[in-house]
From TrEMBL:
Protein name: Uncharacterized protein
Keywords per UniProt: Glycosyltransferase, Signal, Transferase
Organism, scientific name: Extremus antarcticus
Pfam short name (any one): Glyco_hydro_130
Keyword Glycoprotein: no
Length: 369
C-alpha cells in the first residue's frame, strides 16, 4: 500500500513538474530566416471566411505554452527583451511586428510570421530601427493597418526625453518609408499617479500609441492615441493628422483598473452592427483588488458616426486580460500585460500581447455564432 501511495504522489508531482521544466528548457527564439515570404499589393488580407464580432468579445484564455517568443541572444538588436507586437493576417499567415530591445535597451521593430498563429519564424534583421534624431533611443510599440494595399504603421520614436508618435508605410512589410512625427505640436496632459498632489503636468510635444480605424468616417480617417488619456485625431491621407482639443479626452477613465492611464491596443475592429470594438490597455491605482500600477487589457464599443469624440457607447467593467503568470508579474516592468495585436485566424480570435515588457504571448477566444 505504501508503495502504491508513493507512486501515486510521484505521478501527481510529475504532472506539474514536467510541463514546467519543458517550458523552461524550450527555446523562445523560434525559427529564424534570412528571407521573408513575398507580400505584395496583390496579397490577400484576413481569413477567407472572416466573421465580424459582436461587442463584447469574451472568453479570452491564455495560450498554455506562453510565452511564444522571447529575446534572441544571437542577434544583438533583439538580445535583451521582445514584446508588444502588432499583428495582421496576410496570405493565410499571421504576421507580427514586434518591439525588441538590445542590451542597451534601445528598441527596434522586428518581423515574424506563422501559419498556425503560435509557432513563428522571425526575420533575422530589424525592419525598422533608429535612424533619425527623434528616435535615437528607440523605435517602439508598433500598430499596423493595411489600406488599399499599403501598410500604415504607427510607432513611437523616442530620443531619451520625448516620445513622438510616428508613421511609416510599406507594401511588403520589410521595406518601410518613414514620415516622422505626425503630431509634432501637441501638448499632452500627463497624470502622475505616483504623486499625492499636483499630479497633472503638461508634456509639450509628447505623443504615443496611435490606433487607426481603417475606414473613412464622414470623409476622414480617425485615430485614437495617447498613453495617459485617449485623444482623437483625423486625416484625409493617413500621413498628415489633425487632433481635436486635448482638454476633453476621447474617453473618460471610468473603471477602477484604468484610473491612472488608458492607452490604445490594436486598431479597432468593426462589429456586425457597424460600430467599432476597441481594445485598450489601462493602469489602476489599487482599488478593486487590482495591483497598483498594473497594466490590464479591456474593451469598449465606439460609434464613429459620433466622431471625433464618441463618447464610447459601452465599456466592459472587468479586464479581458490581467497579469497573472510569472512572466507578467515579474519582468523588466512588473505586473504588465500590454496588447497591440488582434486578429481572426483559423476559426478563432488571437490577441497578441507583451508580458512584463520582456516576452510575447497570445490569448485565444472563440468566434461568436
Amino acid at each position: 500500500m505504501a508503495t502504491i501511495i508513493r507512486t501515486t504522489v510521484l505521478l501527481c508531482l510529475l504532472q506539474f513538474i514536467l510541463p514546467s521544466l519543458a517550458k523552461q528548457n524550450r527555446t523562445l527564439t523560434g525559427y529564424t530566416s534570412d528571407t521573408v515570404p513575398k507580400v505584395s499589393l496583390n496579397s490577400t488580407q484576413n481569413e477567407p471566411n472572416y466573421t465580424a464580432p459582436y461587442f463584447p468579445l469574451l472568453g479570452f484564455k491564455q495560450y498554455p505554452n506562453n510565452p511564444i517568443l522571447g529575446p534572441n541572444k544571437k542577434a544583438s538588436w533583439e538580445s535583451a527583451y521582445l514584446y508588444n507586437p502588432a499583428s495582421i493576417v496576410i496570405d493565410n499567415k499571421v504576421w507580427l511586428l514586434y518591439r525588441a530591445q538590445n542590451e542597451s535597451l534601445v528598441s527596434s521593430i522586428g518581423l515574424a510570421w506563422s501559419t498556425d498563429g503560435f509557432n513563428f519564424t522571425r526575420y533575422t534583421k530589424p525592419v525598422v530601427q533608429p535612424s533619425e534624431p527623434y528616435e535615437t533611443k528607440g523605435t517602439e510599440d508598433p500598430r499596423v493597418v493595411r489600406i488599399n494595399g499599403t501598410f500604415y504603421m504607427t510607432y513611437t520614436g523616442y530620443d531619451g526625453t520625448l516620445a513622438k508618435l510616428c508613421m511609416a508605410t510599406s507594401t511588403d512589410l520589410v521595406n518601410w518609408t518613414k514620415y516622422g512625427p505626425i503630431l509634432p505640436n501637441i501638448t499632452d496632459v500627463n497624470y502622475r499617479w505616483d504623486l499625492p498632489i499636483n499630479a497633472y503636468t503638461a508634456r509639450e510635444g509628447w505623443s504615443k500609441s496611435g490606433a487607426i480605424i481603417m475606414e473613412k468616417i464622414n470623409g476622414l480617417y480617425q485615430m485614437q492615441f495617447g498613453d495617459n488619456w485617449l485623444y482623437s485625431a483625423n486625416s484625409t491621407d493617413l500621413i498628415h493628422w489633425n487632433y481635436t482639443r486635448n482638454d476633453l479626452p476621447f474617453a473618460a477613465k471610468l473603471n477602477v483598473w484604468e484610473q491612472a492611464l488608458m492607452e490604445s491596443a490594436a486598431p479597432p475592429v468593426k462589429t456586425r452592427d457597424g460600430k467599432w470594438l476597441k481594445i485598450y490597455n489601462g493602469v489602476g491605482l489599487g482599488p478593486g483588488g487590482y495591483v497598483t500600477g498594473s497594466y490590464n487589457t479591456g474593451q469598449m464599443l465606439i460609434d464613429m458616426q459620433d466622431a471625433p469624440r464618441g463618447p464610447p457607447v459601452a465599456r466592459v467593467e472587468t479586464p479581458l486580460l490581467q497579469p497573472l503568470t510569472a512572466e507578467e508579474t515579474k519582468g523588466q516592468v512588473d505586473n504588465v500585460v500590454f496588447s497591440e495585436g488582434l486578429v481572426q485566424f483559423r476559426g478563432q480570435w488571437l490577441m497578441y500581447f507583451g508580458q512584463g515588457d520582456q516576452y510575447l504571448g497570445v490569448a485565444t477566444a472563440p468566434l461568436q455564432p
